[in-house]
Amino acid sequence: MTTPLDPGLDNCGCCEPEPVQPPIYNRPGLPALAYRAGTYATFFRRMLSRISTFTLQDGDFSGSRPLANLATRSQDDPSIALMDASSVMADVLTFYQERLANEGFLRTAVERNSILELAREIGYELNPGVAATVFLAFTVEDAPGAPGMASVPAGTRVKSIPPQGKLPQTFETSTAVTVHKGWNALLPRLSQEQNLLSGIGELYLKGTGSNLKTGDVVFISNTYDYAAAHVDQVDIDSTDQITHVTFDRTTASLGGMPISMTAIAYGDKVPFNADAINQEILQKTWEDDKLNAFLQANGWDAQALMDSLALYRQEKPAVNGLAYTLRTRLGIFGNTAVKYDSLPTSQRFGEWINDSSNTAQFKAGAYPATWENRDITTDSQGTALSTANFYLEHSVPAVQAGDYAVLEKAGSFGVYPVTSVLETSLSDYGISLKVTGLNVSTPFSAPALDSFPVRTTTAYVQSELLTPSGLPLAAQLEKGASSLELDSFIFGLQVGQAVLFTGERADADGQVVTEPLIIKSISHNYGLTTLVFETGLSYPYKRSTASLNANVAVATHGETVSEPLGSGDGSQVHQKFTLKKPPLTYTPAPSPSGGASTLQLRVNNLLWDEAASLYGLAPNDQDYIIRIDNDGKATVIFGDGLKGGRLPTGMNNVTAVYRSGIGLDGQVDAGSLTLLSTRPLGVRGVTNPLAASGAADPEKMEKARGNAPLTVRTLDRIVSRDDYEDFARAFAGIGKAQAIDLWNNGNHIVHLTVAAADGTPITDVKFQKNFMAALDAARDPAQLVKVDTFTRLLFNLVANIAVDRRYITTDVLNAVQTALIGAFAFAERSFGQPVTSAEVITVMQKVDGVVYVDLTALYLSKQSPALNQILSSSIAHGFGGTVQPAELLLINPYGITLQEVSA
Questions:
Q1: Chain centre to alpha carbon of residue 693
Q2: 417 preceded by a cis bond (ω within 30 of 0)
Q3: In the beta sheet, which residues pair with residue 882?
Q4: What is the Cα–Cα distance from 10 to 48, expressed in whole angstroms?
Q5: Which neighbouring-strand residues pair with 683?
Q6: How would you class 835 by CB atoms within 10 Å of its CB: exposed for 0-12, middle for 13-18, buried for 19 or more?
Q7: What radius of gyration do the chain's Cα atoms show?
Q8: Which helix (H) or strand (E) covers residue 345, if one does?
Q9: Is the CB of residue 796 less than 8 Å from the CB of residue 859?
Q10: Which of 196, 381, 588, 895 has the most other CB atoms within 10 Å of its CB?
């Protein structure tokens, strides 16, 4: 036995001091707790060091040292081997003891079930996720003899055609809808009636063959009065087949020619006829519900009314008043006569001549009176014309009774209906010609015929009726517009119904966008339908490209399952039944969690209700709770007769109807939902013009760590700015949220920016409505709140990478690209967070195998390549009296260009 003072002589190690175990201290905020009393090595060394000092404290061996004589420390000795095995056992026990200690705290737990149970202690359930929502557009059978409409019941099932590697997903319609043949493309009003009678400076004509040219005369008529003007400019639109005519002046107002406003008296019921439609529909404005009551009270058929109004719009010219042009321009007979003073004296004053008997006689002149100031109603000597009101300077056989003639003098016009036409040979003014004489009537506002001089009057004849078109409306539908007047009368749409608006953006040529809208109100104005939506248009649109699909049904992800759960037993407490086909579907709802269970549970055919907790239930309350385990299986739990009622005894008397399917798998692409499991009569097909959205997977552990304390921190009430942000983050379907304070015109606004769980902007109208309803239920109603989604910005980069020669270049470059995509992905970035060149270089430089990085370009995807040291991104802010949404700057996965250079 050697002494500790001479360690060089200690061959067995029996004199080594006992290892000191430092005290365990865990500072706040650590991701894991240190809780082990030791490890294998420390336990084994401790046992070895205590062999020589171990004493018995009880019995006959008190104070003795039974192991003092054990001098060996070899591990093949049975005693030492036993200590070695005990140290292994202690190492395992303390490892699991530390893991159990970590599982007891929300911040350090790594098992989903631990977090689930810890959250339940404060009344929080991990969010089960929410099903995706999609808008289904149905096509109605339009073959001859088909009814032209169909009823699509709630629960109509549609399956997707999956991409490679994916499974088909099932969606079911949420409500019943009626679809119609003509509702797939309802058009906005493209033109309005031209009121020619109020005085106009321009005229729109149908087609491009009017053959009008500058200088032609056009006149406007209301059948008893007229106004004329010269054509100044003619523009032809071959695309829309419209001719735009601009006049050299604004025509005089001729007064209105409105639809007859004479009231017609009826009996108890208004009959369905043209007069009644004119009076009750075309001359009135109706709210949709009041018109519906009118139709029912009077027995009018809505489809017959729509057909009648469609025929009326088709036959009625889109104009108030008539328009004519005159094809022939000429003067009045006598306007080309020589000046009177240039006539021979014999024709003016007469002459003496000898007759046959050589007797001198005086022969009077043929034109003793001057003709220079004659009007068109007299001959050259001032005698009123007897067979016509006036004569044209030559024959125009095309002029007929019923036509119009326009006379112009010194820039003023007179329009005269032609009552009769005379073709004759006329000698006067020293001229002999075949001419056309016109008899006309004189409207009360037209100048008298005798006010038109022969010399200076221009006549326009051979009138031709023009065909005006509707007056084109504004070229675009403005961004934010929340109402739309249709070009027809549509009856049967419902308030709250979803429709799909499609059109080409006015600010981005060629980009056709579809967006969902929810009908807020419906009115019918003078035979045309106007829709008001809950939200405005997201973009400006070219009016001529816009259309509205009203054959739309909202559907959610999940397939209906009906199954018996089992038998109730009144002697048991807290009976449990597990649903056989997980996951249980939760559909979007205006609840704090953002979802509502689809489970309908019946006991003895009576519906029982779901409760959040059994605590607080009365002994006979017919309620149950749902608990979802770590594997996603849903279990239904009933009460114990004290808190919640027990199940009554019966054979298979507990049944359930629910839907199965949830999460981001349901966010199928646009156009993929085309397979109808059951085809309603009259429906030809179905598709989803927009991708499904609004889904969220069951809550992950990392998110639950932050969300679980929310119920304690806010007590289900939103007070502070941070509460708004916390509430949004806990709402199913929202993946990121940011709340900031803004001031607008002296008003304090809490602005909340949200993003979908899959990293996309939130555009689903139904989702927005549910979230706002849940938010409003928890917040102070006096606080002004604005919720917006974000604007996504993408950036590109170009970099030269020097790769260590020991590494495979392709692998390194792929690793760099993966690192960049991961570092600048949605989950890693915040609203308004900038990107710097140093940050980008750091991410690339950390990849194994990278010697150095030369960043040559860093720029926004919409900009020209350049090396920017910083790319800015804005949080929500006020600008120009409006709130600009927050920006989220992410990397463009297709905008990464990496090139190898020599190290």
A1: 12
A2: no
A3: 879
A4: 14
A5: 140
A6: buried
A7: 46
A8: helix 345-348
A9: yes
A10: 588
Q: How many CA atoms lie within 13 A of 183 on its CB side?
A: 27
Handedness of CA 536, 539, 540, 543 (dihedral sign): negative
> In the chain, what percentage of residues exceed pLDDT 70?
93
Contacts of 80 (CB under 8 A, 6+ apart): 48, 72, 73, 74
Characterize the bridge pairing of strands 412-428 and 285-287.
unpaired
Burial of 192 (0-12, 13-18, 19+ CB in 10 A): middle
Per-residue model confidence (pLDDT) at position 197: 86
Q: Say which residues have a Cβ less than 8 Å from residue 521's Cβ, sequence separation at least 6.
A: 287, 288, 495, 531, 532
With vertex at residue 137, the alpha carbon angle to CA 136 and CA 138, rounded to the nearest 5 degrees, is 115
**How distant, in Å, are the alpha carbons of 53, 54, 676 from that of 10?**
17, 19, 86
Q: When comparing pLDDT for 189 and 60, which is higher?
A: 189
H helix runs in 53-128, sequence order: 78-103, 112-121
Crossing angle of the two packed helices 765-778 and 721-730, in degrees rounded to 10: 130
pTM score above 0.85: no
Torsion of CA 245, 250, 252, 255, to 10 degrees: 70
Residue 408 clears pLDDT 70, i.e. is over it: yes
> Hey, how many other C-beta atoms are within 10 angstroms of the C-beta on 403?
20
Identify the residue whose tokens are 């033109």: 191
How confident is the model at residue 54, as a pLDDT? 67
Beta-carbon contacts of residue 875 (< 8 Å; ≥ 6 apart): 738, 740, 753, 831, 832, 886, 887
Phi-psi sector, 11: left (phi>0), alpha (psi -120 to 50), beta:
alpha
Residues 6+ apart with CB under 8 A from 137: 184, 500, 549, 551, 552, 686, 687, 688, 689
Neighbours of 690 (CB within 10 A): 20
Residue 586 to residues 247, 635, 662, 707: CA-CA distances in angstroms?
65, 14, 7, 19
Is residue 623 within 8 A of residue 640, CB to CB? The reply is: no
* Residue 666 DSSP code: G
Quickly state the pLDDT bin for 219 (edges 50, 70, 90).
Answer: very high
Please say whether the beta carbons of 815 and 869 come within 8 A.
no
User: CA triplet 894, 896, 897: central angle to 5 degrees?
Assistant: 120
Partners of 170 in the β-ladder: 159
Structure tokens belonging to residue 435: 């001419």
Q: Tell the residue number behind the tokens 């990464």, with chain if given.
A: 896
- Other C-beta atoms lying within 10 Å of the C-beta of residue 731: 26
Range from 79-83, 189-193, 514-518, 804-808 carrying the lowest mean pLDDT? 189-193
Quick check: bond before 680 cis, omega within 30? no
Instruction: Determine the pLDDT at residue 18.
Output: 62
Query: Over the chain, what is the mean pLDDT?
Result: 88
Helix (H) or strand (E) holding 859: strand 850-860
- Residue 686's alpha-carbon distances to 81, 186, 474, 694, 735, in angstroms, are 75, 18, 33, 21, 31
Buried b (16+ CB within 10 A) or exposed e, 130-156: bbbbbbbbbbbbeeeeeeebbebeeeb
**Helix, strand, coil content of the chain in percent (nearest 5):** 20, 35, 45
Residue keyed to tokens 């909202």: 554
Token output for 429: 């003014």
| pLDDT per residue as tens digits for the range 716-749 | 688 888 889 888 888 888 989 999 998 877 788 8
Higher model confidence: residue 509 or residue 356?
509
pLDDT at 261: 47
Strand 791-803, strand 887-901: pairing? parallel
Query: CB–CB of 565/502 below 8 Å?
Result: no
